[in-house]
């Protein structure tokens, strides 16, 4: 008797078609898997409500799906955007054609609230088992998958001679160079000098945890912004010109015309002027005592050298405005205790005062008792807070 072959369901057929499309369009596994997972939610919606059997039939109900996400669910604007993005890409429809809630930093909740996070040994930054990983991440700020692939040969210098950690497959599957601040270069280099060229920097046990590593990535970006802003203020035009040359050199490294092989011109808006927060993001910054304006050159340096993308809006809104509930994560306190101790002793420094409010406010909201202990260590100057 011939073996019975089970036929694929309509849902499975539609999912396979989408998987093949996204696999061809996005070679990066992370992007492809996220898009495939979220697109399947759209397929289930069309199948359950409208009994659609083909992709063409599903495409007629994109607007119905948007209405469902915005009016019948409690999803945040960011989640709605994530669910809708693969649908728009698959059908080639601009997302701006649909009316949906606008994303802003004030509405970001993932990983930033401790309300539903239970304190455990595998999500505690003070756990000695993860000490090497946490100290490294505070200075470098990589994603978990990027940390996993680091080897002993990945401590290099970039086109400007600055120390960097090389990420062989970063955002979009591309190679990127993560610059290290001068004060951290020797410490980060010690992780690599004792490893063979093909030996992993971190073991699987060190990376098997639930630590909120993205919060440390945000803190790394904030620290870098303070570094560049401080140098631009104290060293003036000579350092400003130097930083422009370094950013331009990085731009030419990754932006070449494929047809002619020549360098593409850099967008001058990345290098000049001031980046102002507006709307909900400005109100969020004022509420938490954060700056509402940034030197655009310093912001671009953070975006390019430490976050490895060229989007100042994402750098400012998703990283510099990130306020995390870090209750129980004592390792982050060390950063603030150091910065607060240094800044309180300053006589006059406008940006220092701004950054003190910036750092102290985050610590106050996350761990008030640690904040009070830090302030009591130094004589509090009038007008700082």
Structural class of the helices, strands and pairings?
A: mainly alpha
Strand content: under 5%
Distance between the termini: 83 Å
Q: How many domains, in number, for the residues? A: 3
For the largest sheet, list the strands in their spatial order: 1-2-3
Uncertain runs are 326-358, 361-371, 375-385
Gyration radius from CA atoms, angstroms = 24 Å
Oligomer kind:
single chain
Q: What is the approximate shape?
A: globular
Helix tally? 17
User: Largest sheet, if any?
Assistant: 3 strands, antiparallel
Give the gist of this structure.
This protein has 385 residues and is mainly α.
Fold and architecture overview:
The strands form two sheets. The chain has a three-stranded antiparallel sheet, with helices on one face. Strands 4-5 form a two-stranded antiparallel ribbon. The C terminus is likely disordered. It is globular, with a radius of gyration of 24 Å. It has 385 residues and is mainly alpha-helical.
């Amino acid at each position: 008797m011939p073996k019975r072959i089970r036929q694929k369901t309509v849902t499975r057929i539609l999912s396979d078609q989408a998987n093949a499309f996204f696999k061809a369009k996005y070679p990066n596994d992370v992007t492809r898997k996220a898009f495939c997972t979220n697109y399947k939610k759209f397929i289930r919606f069309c199948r359950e409500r409208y009994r659609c059997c083909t992709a063409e039939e599903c495409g007629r109900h994109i607007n119905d799906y948007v209405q469902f996400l915005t009016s019948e669910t409690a999803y945040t604007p960011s989640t709605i955007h994530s669910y809708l993005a693969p649908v728009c890409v698959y059908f080639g429809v601009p997302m701006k054609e649909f009316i949906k809630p606008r994303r802003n930093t004030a509405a970001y909740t993932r990983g930033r609230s401790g309300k539903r996070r239970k304190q455990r040994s595998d999500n505690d930054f003070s756990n000695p088992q993860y000490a090497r990983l946490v100290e490294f991440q505070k200075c470098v700020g990589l994603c978990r998958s990027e940390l996993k692939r680091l080897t002993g040969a990945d401590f290099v210098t970039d086109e400007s001679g600055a120390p960097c950690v090389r990420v062989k497959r970063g955002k979009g599957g591309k190679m990127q160079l993560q610059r290290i601040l001068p004060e951290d270069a020797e410490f980060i280099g010690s992780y690599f000098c004792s490893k063979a060229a093909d030996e992993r920097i971190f073991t699987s046990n060190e990376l098997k945890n639930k630590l909120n590593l993205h919060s440390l990535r945000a803190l790394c970006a904030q620290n870098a912004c303070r570094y560049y802003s401080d140098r631009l203020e104290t060293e003036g035009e000579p350092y400003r010109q130097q930083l422009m040359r370094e950013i331009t050199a990085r731009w030419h490294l990754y932006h070449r015309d494929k047809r002619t092989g020549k360098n593409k011109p850099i967008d001058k808006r990345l290098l000049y002027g001031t980046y102002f927060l507006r709307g909900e993001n400005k109100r969020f910054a004022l509420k938490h005592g954060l700056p509402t304006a940034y030197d655009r050159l310093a912001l671009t340096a953070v975006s390019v050298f430490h976050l490895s993308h060229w989007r100042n809006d994402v750098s400012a809104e998703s990283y510099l405005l990130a306020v995390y509930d870090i209750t129980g994560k004592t390792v982050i306190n060390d950063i603030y205790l150091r910065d607060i101790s240094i800044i309180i002793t300053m006589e006059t420094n406008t940006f220092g005062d701004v950054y003190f409010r910036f750092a102290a406010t985050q610590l106050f909201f996350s761990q008030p008792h640690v904040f009070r202990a830090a302030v009591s260590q130094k004589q509090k100057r009038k007008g700082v807070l």
